[in-house]
Amino acid sequence: MRESVSAGKAEERGTGKLRFAVALLIAAASVSSALIGWRASEYSGRASDLDQRGLEETRERQQILAGLEAFVVGDLRLLGSYQEHVKASVVLERRASRAANRSVANALDARAREEEDAAESIRRSFWSQQKGILVEEKNGDVRYDRARAFEALKAEDIALPDLHPDEAFASARVTREQAVNLVGIAALVVASLIFFTLARFGRAGTNSLFAGAGGLLLVTGLTLFVWIGP
Amino acid sequence: MNVRAPEIAAPGEEGRDALSRIVAVCIVLVTLTAAAVGWRAASSSGAADSAGVDAQRLSVKAMEEALRSKQDAQLNYELFVRTEAQRRRAAAASWASLSAERARDQQLLEEENEVWTTVSRRTEKLTKLKAAGRYGPEQDLTFPWRYYAQSERRSQEIGALRDAASEESFAWGKRNASYATLLTMLTVALFLLGFWLSVPGRAKLIFVVLGMALALAAAAWAATLESSAPSRPPERAAKEFAEGYVAHGTQDYKRAAAHLEKAVDLWPTYARAYALLSDVYFRRDAPETFGFQSVTDPQALDDSISVLRKADDLGLAGWDERATLGWLEFLLALRTPDDAEQRELLEWSARHAEEAIDRHPGATFVRYNLGLARLALGQDTAARAAYDDAVRRTQRDDQEWLAALADLDLLLDGRPDLAAEVRAAKEFVAGSVARQQQEPGPWEGSLPGMTAQVYPSAVQVAELALDDFDPKRDVLSMHWYWLKEKQLGWVNLADVSGFVPGSDIVESTRAPGTYFIEWSTTRCLERGQYRVEIYVNGRLAGEARTEATLTTSRMSRLRSVDVQLCPPARWQKADWFLPGFLEGLVAPDEQAGTYVLRMPVPRTLADRPPQQLSTASLDSFISTFGELFPARPTFDDASTQAVASNYFMGLSGSRVRRYEYDGGWILAGAGITSEGDVLAGVVFGPSADFETRQPLDIFDSLLTTS
């Protein structure tokens, strides 16, 4: 009878220790889940900010590029007229030099000068004055290097180098994945909390089972949290 | 704190302990499932955000691409126009050199011609748009619209990619809602299983069973959700959609259907593709290719309405889709023999028209459609109200009211019992639009003897006894309709319908006291039945019909000489080409063809009367350019005497003559244009061809475009 009473007391002491440990684990799991949840929301907020920044930079970049494209298009609009005068000037000059009739030659030459003047006044209106973009060949053919003109304008723009929307979107993607992973870890820790609660208030036969499951989840969660990065 | 010790299993409670363990394991599993679902919910929310951001990014890109491609297309078009202007300057210098009086001037003008010819060749190289190219004016009567339409390919593709991202984001969002429900179910299950701890007796079993049932249902749902994940439609679908869009814009409906069918195969939930495919099916088999396309082949109508309903089911609910759906239901109703089913379709047609009007009150043609549906339903007052709304929004140059009259004929074909209502509605529409032009006078005449005549590219209504008609007081409108096949119904020819200005009502020289009206079409007319109605002051004054047995042809332009014609489809550009002077088309074997010559009046002929000038120009043309024909031609006096009319392209002082060569004939005409040039046209071919209508049809189709 005495033996049975002392065994009961020992069992009661053991259960009391388990209950105390579970209470501590509940506190630890609560604090951890709150911490992980806060980190997850931090990451999530950062991902949204990065997405927003990416979108703003995309819009700003497109706005700048559209503006630069407009300059190039403006040049290309002038190109038709410029080509017309340059070609006419070259052809008239050539025909003037070949004309047998002096009066005809003079008239053609005068027309060639007129065309040349007109061409010159248009040439000055081109936005892209850099060498190699607007090329005039001897036969009067004019070429405009559109890609080069666009690249030159882009190189001169001071705002474009600071705009990297694709990088912002890539960072947002990574950060969002991080946030999702943290939510997963937080879920594990919350699950451990439920187990601890059941271990604390549940039936004697299942207490240790719940406590073990909770402990496993808590350790896994905290390990993952430390591994992924707080 | 004094915490009550857990119950220790008493003897005989083994069964309860076994249950306890099972429930405990279940709680563990449910908790883990809830944790997993929570994590999946967070992950799907992230995927929805990511796809949503992608959709916004693509939206910006699509807008930028649309702007850029429009700018590029405009640039190319401007350069094309410049090339054309340079060619005309070359031709003008060349013409002027012919009539230059001094040798120096002549030489200078010839030099000028050379300069502009060289410059135009160079400018042409700067533009992607070519006159004879697929989207150039020689191939496209709607030039430059097809060219602009094809430039939208890339922006449409990006737009479709944006729609795909948006759809993916929506699908993830929807899945997120499912996860939220799952979490609720699992939480309730946990709550019920948790009751097992505190409720004594057998009642706890109820909670355990309920909790388990909920947990199992949630697990099954979660498993179903996880078996598939929202995915973005393949990029290939966006490409196919863009190709289909461009083909639709360039009126290549067979190609458009092929691409769009592939697009919906790859992306079965793309509502925009279904809506476009519906339009493609309708237009592909529609007899009319200009203006409003009201009718189509019955099978095409079924296909069209079926895919549009699919778009509707997928949530596409723009005013345009509503209006089209309403119209298709009206057409379907007319074909439906069952009265109840017909009525139901007409009700739906009216409802969809009303919804379209709610969303876009400015869509006048939908108001006409609503009036038509109401008339078919026998709701005369509502129909009159809809028509009244429509005509108040109609300008006299609009095409809606012309199509509305043709649509009323469709109703009459399907419901002959509504003849009186249809006629009243037609007169109401024609009269109301006429009154916007001027308040008509009291013209009470009728035109019983009027006749209709159809040429390859013109229509004529003649023998109009307009005795009391005063163009200053009265308003006359002409409406042409064409019936290709009985099952298709009458369609309005919008390009030759509308109000007729007084100057176009011409007194006949053959039958003095009667008048005729002749209008040119913007396309080559096809065989079939034609009908014309004349309304005076909004009252139906006369009607005539004719059967046209025209040969199949397609509109071609000889741009260099500003002439259009309707040759057989297989004829192609002749090698003989003098820009600004001479241009032609020939059959592949070069045994038949047509040439048009435009030139300033030669100085040597300048003092002759117009008819003599035309005759001399023709003879000169035939003799100078004899090598254009298979054999050297000679004038044929006898058959020229038999020519019924000297009418040629509406030119002044025109003359028509016939020439003969070994094995063939030439039908030739010439006259003086309003710009003072001589314009001469010939159609030649083997004698056997001249036993058919073809050469005459081609000759009659010659028209100036300047």
Describe this structure in words.
The complex is a heterodimer of chains A (230) and B (706). Chain A has a single domain (2-228), classed as Helix Hairpins, CATH 1.10.287. In chain A, strands 1-2 form a two-stranded antiparallel sheet. The mean pLDDT of chain A is 87. Chain A is mostly helical and 230 residues long. Chain A has helices at residues 2-98, 102-123, 146-156, 165-201, 204-228; strands spanning 134-136, 142-144. In chain A, 83% of the residues lie in helices and 3% in strands. Chain B is an alpha+beta fold and 706 residues long. Chain B folds into four domains: 13-232, Helix Hairpins, CATH 1.10.287; 317-437, Serine Threonine Protein Phosphatase 5, Tetratricopeptide repeat, CATH 1.25.40; 451-548, Sandwich (Immunoglobulin-like); 556-704, Protein Transport Mog1p, Chain A, CATH 3.40.1000. Chain B has a seven-stranded antiparallel beta sheet, with helices on both faces. In chain B, strands 3, 4, 5, 8 and 9 form a five-stranded antiparallel beta sheet that branches. In chain B, strand 1 (451-455) and strand 2 form a beta hairpin. The longest helix of chain B is centred in the first third of the chain and has 85 residues, at 14-98. Classes of the chains: A mainly alpha (230), B alpha+beta (706).
